[in-house]
Design a protein that fits this description.
234 residues, mainly alpha
């Protein structure tokens, strides 16, 4: 078992180095076999095919990012926390373009990668905090998908542009436009305005899990339907 794990790690490390140096085209059965000091059939026994190997390389590289994102200190302002999460996502993608393109630039219907699913869980948690604060103006589900789509678009646009020609303000400009579209700004004192009906509905739905013992399943389903209707009517 130990030898098998060591063999797998050696192959992944070799493929990762080739990917970083020469992109996807540099990662072939022959090049990986030579770099790892193995016979080509070993790759297929370990990973099924080359796509399986690339997925393993991407997941390994993405793991560090996921751990960093999960461990980072939370900002007291949930929208600022979401803003920092966006920046971390974009910074990772620009610094590791080949891994990012495998993870997010090559979607396969019905085959979501585990690491991508985990990143959605983290993003949903950030959005949920905004909702619970009464500052989300769309449903949690819509906000998650809007933010993810926009951030991915920014990264893929930047990595497809030569470094010297990249728009340094693209990420921040898009980020602020997205945040303005799904959330409200923080206010205090006499300038504070009451949350909209939609923001209240989203916040109430976000807190429904805390009321599980107070409502029957039927009551919870009916309340969820009403809250969703308010959100969709906006």
């Amino acid at each position: 078992m130990h030898n098998k794990a060591t063999m797998r790690q050696r192959i992944v490390a070799a493929a990762a180095a080739l990917l970083a140096e020469g992109g996807r085209e540099a990662v072939s059965t022959r090049s990986v076999s030579k770099a790892a000091g193995i016979q080509p059939p070993t790759i297929y026994r370990q990973f099924g095919d080359m796509q399986g190997l690339l997925d393993a390389v991407a997941a390994d590289g993405f793991e560090e990012y996921l751990q960093k994102k999960a461990r980072r200190e939370r900002a007291s302002d949930p929208v600022e926390d979401l803003r920092r999460g966006w920046d971390l996502h974009v910074d990772f993608g620009v610094a590791h373009p080949e891994i990012y393109k495998i993870m997010f630039g090559q979607p396969r219907l019905g085959a979501e990668r585990e690491a991508v699913a985990r990143s959605f869980v983290i993003l949903r948690g950030l959005v949920q905090r905004v909702a619970e604060a009464g500052r989300l103006t769309v449903s949690v589900e819509r906000a998650v998908h809007v933010i993810h789509a926009a951030a991915c678009g920014v990264v893929l646009t930047l990595v497809a542009t030569p470094p010297g020609q990249r728009d340094a303000g693209l990420s921040s400009c898009t980020r602020e436009a997205v945040l303005a579209a799904v959330s409200t700004a923080a206010t205090d004192g006499d300038t504070e305005e009451p949350p909209s009906a939609v923001a209240r509905a989203v916040a109430f739905k976000a807190m429904l899990p805390d009321l599980a013992d107070s409502l029957t399943p039927g009551e919870r389903a009916l309340l969820t339907e009403w809250l969703d209707r308010i959100t969709r009517a906006a």
